[in-house]
Protein 1
Amino acid sequence: MKICRFDKGRVGIVEGDQVKDVTSALEALPPLRWPAPFGDHFIAHLDMMIPKLREAAKTAPALPLSQVSLDTPVANPARVIAAPLNYPLHVQEAANPAINHGVHMPAHDGFKTPIDKYGLFLKSQTGVIGAGQKVVLHWDGRRNDHEVELTMVIGRGGKNISREDALNHVAGYCIGLDMTVRGTEDRSFRKAADTYSVLGPWLVTADEIPDPDALDFGMEVNGEVRQRSNTASLICDCRDLIVRASRVYALHPGDVIMTGTPDGVGEVKSGDVMHAWIEKIGDMNVSIA
Ligand code: MN
């Protein structure tokens, strides 16, 4: 199932080029009381909600996808966890000082798995937007880059999750754009600006993607090909990233894990339109304001 959020708070099921408005199904969610648990209330109840969404879809009005504004498929991410330097060809291109600025040195000193050296990092949850919003550049005159990444959304929390069980904790997948400015600041600063984490176009439930480590994906900017890869080239694959993250942080429903970007990262400027796509998920156009 492809579940979207659109037009400021509505929930839809995407079928072809249409969205079925199933917002009425949200009435089945139990009320939230303070203090709210960490994470996303809808994703936490997704297993219970899917039959309700299906039922609502039978009589739901259908809207053309082209006429709705897509919001982030995860309304309240517990965290946005991200992987640096996780494709071999991106590790190579990051040897360019224009990318690493002499601080975030690439793994040209013999590291086959840069994440062993650098670990994962966190982006701000409040920097998340959907495909219908625009990326607002925050560092005028500096190199602001796109990074397209397969993104996992955690459905069932847990600590010290095993490799064998890892994908059972995934609610679904979406496209993530890990926007960044190149420079000397810490990743958690450069990549956490408002609008610098684009999630979309919708959540594809995990049953539709039995093997997330074999997906073609890519990105064009203004029609020019920038990134092309397959998630089979991930250095730390999806299961491994869940294992590594959950060893350090107990995962919560609605945690978002961006798996890393392949080679071809490049600059975007005001007015550019990014087109990102991942096999079995879909595609989205995202504009730079
Ligand atoms: Mn990235």
Protein 2
Amino acid sequence: MRAAKDLLRDMVMAAEKTVAFTGAGISTECGIPDFRSPGGLWTKNQPIQFDEFVASRAARDEAWRRKFAMEDKFRAARPGRGHRALARLVQQGKLSAVITQNIDNLHQRAGLPADRVIELHGNATRARCLTCAKPYERERVQEWLDAGVAVPVCDPPCGGLIKPHTIMFGEAMPRDALEEAERRARASDLFVVVGSSLVVYPAAYMPLHAKDAGAALAIVNLTETPHDDQADVLVRGSAAGVLTAVVDRLQPRPVAP
Ligand code: NAD
């Protein structure tokens, strides 16, 4: 029987519109823990809900404190082999877009053009005002936090609450990104999930949209997901190892003289 990753390589070769869908599992090898693996972030902290952030000063303090605590991990992380493999697939014209649940900016840092990355849950390198939507770069907010400002607020005259540009539980998803992701999923002929538990909705509908519209579905993950029974190919393995093997074997073989 053919190995699942060989099958995946053949599917990528044959497909004309492959879309990847990534989760925290593609970044664990870069030193950023996921949520649900043993030792993952949720074993340490319960998530803060959006309405708590808006209503409670203590919740905002805690949200920024956590962001501050995670900052070193995010800053130190470099794109891994999985991110680089996906960027190479885009360069080779074998991948049309990456829909990601990740907030770590590592796809872009691996060389993926921003317009090929659809971020469903925001991006930790940015913040924005909840009142006027003014964007703030992480560095600027970081300077305030470093200077002892517990809860940053927007420039005058606005004064609105600034919130990390990562979507909290209970917060509306970015509508444009969600619509674009669904459109891309439905237009794909191969949809490849990489490193996601597929339990966070509405993001986890994306593979189902793709499947419903006729795409083949591949899932590359270390552990089971609730959509495994929908997959045309299931690869149990590390994102970096599997994607690198797929991309390396897509290279044209050298022709003997
Ligand atoms: P998750 O934590 O629910 O699931 C991660 C999955 O990846 C698990 O099923 C795990 O078995 C698998 N995995 C772990 N390491 C892997 C590896 N090396 N190769 C292949 N698979 C691996 O993450 P999720 O499905 O992305 O959803 C949780 C939410 O977490 C998302 O909304 C996302 O915004 C947020 N999150 C993001 C980051 C990040 O940006 N790096 C980190 C933590 C959480």
